[in-house]
Design brief:
Protein name: Copper resistance protein D domain-containing protein
GO biological process, one term: copper ion transport
Oligomer: single chain
Distance between the termini: 85 Å
Keywords: Cell membrane, Membrane, Transmembrane, Transmembrane helix
Radius of gyration: 22 Å
Transmembrane segments: 25-46, 76-95, 116-135, 155-176, 183-201, 213-234, 246-272, 284-304, 325-346
Number of domains: 1
Subcellular location: Cell membrane
């Protein structure tokens, strides 16, 4: 029986390998989004940032609640998109060129990085507006945008950080749109890492140097590790020859990142908590323990990778090892997104030292 033109079109779509590749990626990204939002809501509740008024405001509408939820959501999007940009740039550097030119896989990484850089810029500016709304005590729609470059600094001292971070994200997006070379990635990756600094130090101006440097190290190495693994999973998982080169290189980077993450995280947590009883006796401490549990789980996954999959992937011929890597990497990225959502909530949760400080004023 002859097929109609519409049936031919359907069969072509089903047979299109690009659509087959996109479907699991789309489902996985959707699952990550659900996990991130769910973790954010639960963590807000555990951290005492989720009042009944916030819930009611979300359901029936409310200005203050819109700002509260907008703050958390825009910060989560900003964190994830910045991590994605950095990971894509790192992966571009890990991938070998073909005949002196970027491989199609490398170009896909940079294309995704360019798109994520636009999201980074938009979400950073949105975060700025929600922070301004929060500090000014007025709806986002009533903010005097005309004062953005005049006297806003008197009421919102951090405006310069938000504006500069948004501008740098735009610069990165433009740079990624005009270059696909290794040199371009080598220039843009440090710029992207530098752009993490203003937002990482938001709200910590009064804290000591040790905490500031711990937070900076923590944010930078998390971005390299999480973003790099996500990029490998998204764009390199179906390329055995590329995986054989990129995974061993990334494994070395990931090991160093894990050590630095653990050291900087412990240092920052101890600085803010001050004692073990505070760890399990405060809302902030509960969130820190949950994030620590995620770090331990990721360490177990990383150990398994190095022991059982990395060396076998290096040959480029072991399909079973490649599938194991993809499955473990997917689980790691899932846990990493949960950890990022916890970190977002921690940044808006009063630490015990802050509570003591305000209690003594």
């Amino acid at each position: 029986m002859a097929l109609t033109s519409s049936q031919h079109a359907v069969s072509r779509r089903r047979a299109d390998p690009r659509s087959l590749r996109r479907k699991p990626v789309t489902l996985f990204v959707a699952a990550l989004a659900v996990a991130g939002v769910a973790t954010l809501v639960i963590a807000m509740w555990l951290g005492g940032n989720l009042s009944q008024a916030s819930v009611d405001g979300l359901l029936i509408g409310g200005t203050s609640s819109f700002t509260t939820w907008g703050l958390q959501a825009s910060k989560l999007v900003m964190e994830v998109s910045s991590v994605g940009v950095i990971g894509m740039l790192l992966t571009r550097l890990l991938l070998p060129d073909q005949d002196g030119k970027p491989s199609p896989t490398a170009r896909r990484c940079l294309r995704t990085a360019s798109q994520l850089a636009v999201v980074w810029a938009i979400s950073t500016f949105a975060l700025f507006l929600f922070n301004w709304s929060d500090m000014a005590g007025m709806p986002v729609t009533d903010l005097p945008i005309t004062k953005l470059f005049t006297d806003i600094g008197d009421t919102f001292p951090g405006v310069a950080d938000f504006v500069s971070s948004t501008a740098v994200a735009v610069m990165i997006a433009v740079g990624l749109a005009v270059t696909d070379t290794r040199l371009g990635a080598m220039v843009l990756l440090p710029l992207a890492l530098y752009n993490l600094v203003p937002m990482a130090l938001q709200g910590h101006a009064s804290h000591g140097t040790v905490l500031k440097y711990s937070l900076l190290v923590h944010v930078i190495v998390v971005s390299l590790w999480v973003g790099g693994l996500a990029a490998l999973l998204m764009h390199v998982r179906k390329e055995p020859a590329m995986l054989a080169v990129a995974v061993p290189r990334f494994s070395t980077v990931a090991l160093g990142c894990y050590v630095l993450i653990a050291a900087s995280g412990i240092t920052a947590s101890w600085y803010l908590l001050g004692s073990l009883p505070t760890l399990w006796g405060s809302r902030y401490g509960v969130l820190v323990m949950l994030k620590g549990a995620a770090l331990i789980a990721l360490g177990v996954f990383g150990w398994w990778h190095r022991q059982h999959t990395v060396s076998r992937i290096r040959t480029g011929e072991d399909g079973r090892a490649r599938r194991a890597f993809i499955q473990l990497a997917a689980a790691e990225v899932f846990i990493m997104v949960i950890a990022i959502a916890l970190a977002v909530t921690l940044s808006r949760t009063a630490s015990p030292d802050t509570i003591v400080l305000h209690g003594n004023l």
